[in-house]
Amino acid sequence: MNGGAEYLQSLGLCGRTDPESFKACVPLATHSDLEPYIQRIADGEDSSILTGKPITTISLSSGTTRGMPKFVPFNDELVSSTMQIYRTSFAFRNREYPIKNGKALQFIYSGKQFKTRGGLTAATATTNVFRSEEFKKTMKDIQSQCCSPDEVIFGPDFSQTLYCHLLCGLIFSQEVQFVSSTFAHGIVHAFRTFEQVWEELCADIREGVLSSRVTVPSVRAAVSQLLRPDPDLADAIYEKCSRLSNWYGLIPELWPNAKYVYGIMTGSMEMYLKKLRHYAGDLPLVSSDYGSSEGWIGANVNPLLPPESVTFAVLPDIAYFEFIPLKEEVEEAKEEERIDSSLVYKESEPVGLTEVKVGEEYEIVFTSFAGLYRYRLGDVVKVKGFHNSTPELQFVCRRNLLLTINIDKNTEKDLQQAVDSATKLLSDSKLELVDFTSHADLSTDPGHYVIFWELSVDGDNDEVLLSECCDQLDRAFVDAGYVSSRRVGAIGALELRLVRRGTFHRILDHYLGLGAAVSQFKMPRCVGDSNAKVLQILCDNVVKNYFSNAF
């Protein structure tokens, strides 16, 4: 299909398709290696630079890692593989949690579209999928049709779209079979919003008139067609909300026929699981499939597993997969070896899909139908077993380091574990962690870790408790390089900075302003100096800070 691509021809592949020739001729690549070719296509050159089939659109990554989105080629093959993943995971999910032919309360959002210099439409990967005819057909086939009309999903204003999603979900409350969003934080954010607007939603349903907050004409017209005066439903919702204790079990209370809550819940989404379980009550949380802006990797074929233990079976026909074995970390690494703040491993030559070993860790390399060849995804996974002959993977972390100042090496997983350890101290207080991120501050001498927290209420009367949280954060980073550096003063005391309520929503608004879609947004867990605007938002909203006394 892609054998005649200019990129492959320039490497001397000459149309050969055997794995040995492919690996001998084509080097491992990162996005920066392929970016010039992708940019040429975006600027108007022919897709044959990278692919046989036309590149129909450009997908945008979330942009939360670098502060700006990457261009990723997108074609019909990626749409087909997305639908294959959806159908596969639904078959396994429906075997454990069978649903009737109802509706889904889906908090999904389309991002902005624009034209590249060469006239291609550019949008987030989720937007490209949601706008495809195949998506609508597949959602119907797997009994997952959204409560909200298309005008809501593709509405230009996030806040208005969210409000209408909630309203449509309540109108069809008896038909909702499950609640979902692309990422777990999308569900948590939706119900945090519900806590603020539920009485207004009840008034809309009681009177049959849509709130004046919805001003987009197409959205307003579409939702108004669904809305009829229903005082009985409004009273029932009001009564149920009034008797809930701190909103525990909100989802099954208002959507009694829902079987589960569904979304990506791994990696940076683990932060939101506690609050999601609070809203879900006894409903199971089911983690959705494993993919990225560049393409899909695997489906969740074990939906009974909790999100913290979920594995993904690689679908071998949606890409050509290789795996770089990652052995024990090198304890001491020269500065020049730390390229792009990447976690240092002893690497071996990539192995094939059936050559991986249970219990070992690997970095994923894949070759997609859309022109990414031997592409290093940057994800570290562990092989937990096999489903028939295909490996089942557990996501471990991103390969890139989040926090490093000296010889320390701390990943997203290490940061999450440190935050989990510290927030346990809040369990007996009224304080609840809303969101967090971090920053390696090199402006001080020595440099030090900064952790930003947004709390649900002001912590003015909890100075001692929050100081203890700061100490615990510092102690919880157990990487040998970090501990030794702290003890000898090569890394300064960890700093916990509390930010105003709503700060992380301002960060979301910033990314939406750059064209990101809520469906694809992931809060950056480390904000580097290059992400200056987000760092400024955080620093401008600090209300209190604490320094650790743990060392």
TrEMBL record:
**Which InterPro entries would you find in this protein's record?**
GH3 (IPR004993), GH3_C (IPR055378), GH3_M (IPR055377)
Every copy of the GH3 middle domain together lies at 313-398
Q: Using the record's annotation, list all stretches that form the GH3 C-terminal domain.
A: 413-530
| GO CC term (a single one) | cytoplasm
Q: Does the keyword Ligase apply?
A: yes
Could you tell me the keywords of this UniProt record?
A: Ligase
A GO molecular-function descriptor: acid-amino acid ligase activity
UniProt-listed Pfam families: GH3, GH3_C, GH3_M
Looking at the keywords, is Ligase present?
yes
**PANTHER family assigned to the protein according to its UniProt record, in alphabetical order:** GH3 DOMAIN-CONTAINING PROTEIN, JASMONOYL--L-AMINO ACID SYNTHETASE JAR1
Q: Which family does it belong to?
A: Belongs to the IAA-amido conjugating enzyme family.
What is the name of this protein? Indole-3-acetic acid-amido synthetase GH3.5
Protein's organism: Acorus calamus
